[in-house]
Every structure is written in C-alpha cells, then in structure tokens.
Please model this.
Amino acid sequence: MRETIKYLFDSQFRDWEMAAKNYAALKDVREKAFTVSDCTVRVQFNPARILSSAAKVDAKSIQERACFLCATNRPAEQEGISFLAKYTILINPFPIFPRHLTIPSVLHTPQRIEGRMTDMLELAEALDEYVIFYNGPRCGASAPDHMHFQAGNKGFLPIENNWQQNCSLLSETKRGLIWKISDNLRTGWIMEGTDKQDLSILFDTIYKRLDEIPTEDEPMMNLLAWFDKGKWIVVVLPRKKHRPDCFFTEGEEQLTISPASVDLGGVFITPLEKDFDKITGQIIAGILHEVCLDEAHIKNISNRIKELL
Ligand SMILES: [Zn+2]
Model:
C-alpha cells in the first residue's frame, strides 16, 4: 500500500495542476507554536482551508449543493484507489498535511461512525505511515451527508508523540487499555490494543455511554487512529459544541476557526491571516474548553465505562 499511495500522489501531482499547486504552496505556509497546559499546539495559516472552515453544513445548504465526495461530482483529474470495496482513497486537494488523503465511502450515505470502527482500524493498518481521522457530522465534517475518513502523514500532529505524557490509565481489560486524557486542554479517552475486533468492542462500549448525551444524529466526536508496531492507538474526543462563539461574533473578537480532529490533535488551522496574527495560547485553551465535553461529564461517563468492562 505504501508504494501505491506514493504512486497516487506522484501521478496526481503530474496530472492535476490545482492539487500540485496547493501542495507546493504548503511549503510556504506560516506557522507558529505555543505551549498550552504543557502541550505543544501549532497554528497554521492556511488560506485554502477557508472552504472547509467556513463550510455551510446546515441541512438546507447541504441539500442544495452537489456532493463533492460523490464519484459523479468529483473533478475529472481526481484518481482513487479502492479500499475494502467500500471506500475510495483520494488525495485531498486542499491539504493541511504534506500528505493528506480523503477516504469517502463509495455510497452517498450520512457521516456516522457506528459500525465503522473496524474499517477505521483496517485503514490505519493499511496506511501505516498515516494517522486516520474522523470528524463527526457536527464536529468539522464539511460533507456531513457523505461518510468519509481522512488521513494525514505521521510526524505532524503533536498528540501522536505526546499523548502518553498526559494520560491516566482508566481500565486494563483483556481487550485492551483505556486511558483517560488529563492534559487540561482536551478531554476524552485513548484506547490501545493489538486486536481490531477487541478495540471495536471497546469503542462500542464508550460510544454507548456517549449516547446518553442528547444529540440529533450521533454523539458529537472527533477520532484519531494510527497503527504502530503491531498496536493501534485510538483517540476519542467527545464534543459538546461544533463551532466556538468567536466564530459567530462580529468585530475584533471574531475568529474563523472551526475546530476538528486536526485542531484537537494539536494543529490549529486559521484560514485568515488576521486570525493567525491574533490567536494566542490563551484563546486556543478557551476554544478547546468551549467545544470539548466538560470534565464532569467525562468523569461520569468514565465511571460507567469502568462498570461495563
Ligand atoms: Zn456524496
């Protein structure tokens, strides 16, 4: 698979000018870094991401646009690789990572994680040079009506290397370990294990507990997963809010920031330069506090997860 993906990028850069340009432009993006609650958070000024950050994801807007993840509406130049006969691996033409993939379902079906954790783990194993991520329909997915995962090359997201520093073991089960994130920045759990089925069952246990929080479609969450030395790591980041208040404010306080898996993983994306200049570690901490599920809820759910295992 590694060779196949490399070949896909090479051939797309040769045949698809817009994508090649956007990846080349990534080399010049402005970045800055903060240490917030002992965690590294980088900020990337990435103008091409305005399409995603400011995407209208209300039911009416979604219904009125042609779905850009459906094969019939995709750019003529875009090539894909079939995966499990259920998904197509595509290069993302508006990258955040130096290597960024979008992996839509072959079918136009709503963005839902239930029943798809095994697929996510299969992807992580097959694309072992990548971190796979999932943005819930109200947590940053710009196509909430079309199921898709994304993947970005390893070595980019701070959480990938520093997750163990700020975690406490919640439960050690025969199916795997569940850690509770305790970094004062984000909230959630991290699952660690060597068996896909076992990890899927552990995820279902967490998912069912999250279902107790009222939601319209599925419990709000972002997910990150990767495979390393025979082991999967899955980061579960439950959310209580899609976009922070500053997104909707007018004037000085306004920031076009729409946090999703990548931001929660430690790289904040600002499509507007004024926001990039303005943002501070304190603002980042405030936004994360506002959108992540609060600690009291997490503690409650953690206790119930423990009882079930
Ligand atoms: Zn579609």
Observations:
- The longest strand covers residues 221-228.
